[in-house]
Amino acid sequence: MPEVVIRKMVTCVEEIFHEGGPIAAQPLRRAAAIAVIRNPYAGSYVENIAGFMDDLKPLGLQMARTLIGALGGDAKVVEGYGKGAIVGAAGELEHGALWHVPGGYAMREVLGGAKAIVASTKKVGGPGTRLDVPITHINASYVRSHFDAMEVGVNDAPRADEILLALVMTTGPRVHARVGGLKASEIKGEDGLR
Amino acid sequence: MNAIAPTKAKIRKIATFVEETHREMDRVISPPTRRAAAVAVIENPCAGKYVEDLSELIAIGEELGELLTQRAVAALGIPGASCESYGKAAAVGEDGEIEHAAAILHPKLGTPVRRVLGKGAALIPSSKKRGGMDVVLDIPLGHKDAAYVRSHFDGMEVRLNDAPRAKEIMVAIAVTDSGRPLPRVGGLNKDQIKGEDGLR
Predict the structure, then answer these.
(1) Which of A90, A118, A155, B106 could form a disulfide with B157 if both were Cys (CB 3.0 to 4.6 A apart)?
(2) Under an 8 A CB cutoff, do A7 and B160 touch?
(3) Per-residue model confidence (pLDDT) at position B3
């Protein structure tokens, strides 16, 4: 089992008061936790990589807890989430896919069993690459007000032999959400969709 | 963290960033070097026209000096007095003037920064520019009590994909608990600081 070697941890929090419309009574907050780790499979094709997902679990939990801390410490305020990965040039896209299980389940566990699939994206890129991490409601993917995204990136990462891993959480709908669809108040919360 | 007191500045957004470096060139950095930046995106009350008197922006600078330093220090989770270096920067949207950034950064922003940090004998290094959304701000960093401490010459990049809009200004303050991860180019060491003149 390869070791998880962390070079850098980054936390970003955005607090959005308005976007040209009325000032929100409760500002929307978005937070991202980012880890830059060594890619143990960089430089060659490795067939059997799935075991690294287990190695990443503690890091996933640590990052999920960091996010809740950055949002004030109470998991109940979290309404949206997403995840993503940027694989450095000497790696392959499939290495980014290793983040699906440890990243997603860490957030669902820390949030007390959130129902919806965790929206995700990934790509291969160089240092400074930006990633638009998609965000959806934690219990019902179809809640339209919570469809959102947060751009993340680190100017000096990922290097060629690194992977940048990201988790994102938000505290509510887009600041001026008003395009209809399923409302958060209408969620059944059984199938993770509605 | 949620509600903030009414401000002179019309704030659209506040963002904070924390970076911890755990390894550099495969050497373990223990404890990790840490730095934080707080950024406010505000309406530019002087956008779109030439305004002679910039006192409104000067007052906003004083207010943001306190607010953003508090946010950045809180993000590091250490007492203000334990911060080692600092810096400030502003980016003016396309309908504003570089002088607007100067009005915010230079006359009155520094005093509340130093109040939050307990000291700060050194000049606060700064940068400014005009630009569109997603413009990159490289906030220069220097030791807060002695500008010649070479291990603490550094910079921190911040950017927000949706700011500044044409009639906005992005104002940033960065603080650290350390210098570069592996400083080894000599110069004044932080243990040798007198901290009287802000230089050495």
Answers:
(1) A155
(2) no
(3) 56
Condensed to tens digits (0 to 9), the pLDDT of residues A46-59 reads 999 999 999 999 99
In chain A, how many domains are there?
Answer: 1
Spatial separation of the C-alpha atoms in residues B139 and B126, rounded to whole Å: 7
| Side chain identity at residue A136, one-letter code | T
DSSP 8-state class, residue A22: S
The domains of chain B are located at: 31-135+149-190
**pTM (predicted TM-score):** 0.90
In a domain, A182, yes or no: yes
| Sequence-ordered list of residues with C-beta below 8 angstroms from that of B160, at least 6 positions apart, any chain | A14, B13, B15, B39, B41, B133, B134, B170
What's the CATH code of the domain at A64? 3.30.1330.110
pLDDT (tens digit per residue) in A138-172:
999 999 999 999 999 999 999 999 999 999 999 99
> How many Cβ pairs closer than 8 A exist between chain A and B?
58
- In chain B, the residue whose alpha carbon lies closest to the alpha carbon of A32 is B17
Which of B42, B22, B158 minimizes the C-alpha distance to B101?
A: B42
φ, ψ (nearest 5 deg) of residue A146: -100, 0
With respect to residue A1, please indicate whether it lies within any of the assigned structural domains: no
Residues 25 through 54 of chain B touching chain A, CB cutoff 8 Å: 32
Asked whether B120 and B144 are in contact (CB, 8 A), the reply is yes
Shortest CA distance from B136: residue in chain A: A155
Q: Is A72 in contact with B1 (Cβ distance < 8 A)?
A: yes
Classify domain B31-135+149-190 by CATH number: 3.30.1330.110
What ipTM goes with this model? 0.84
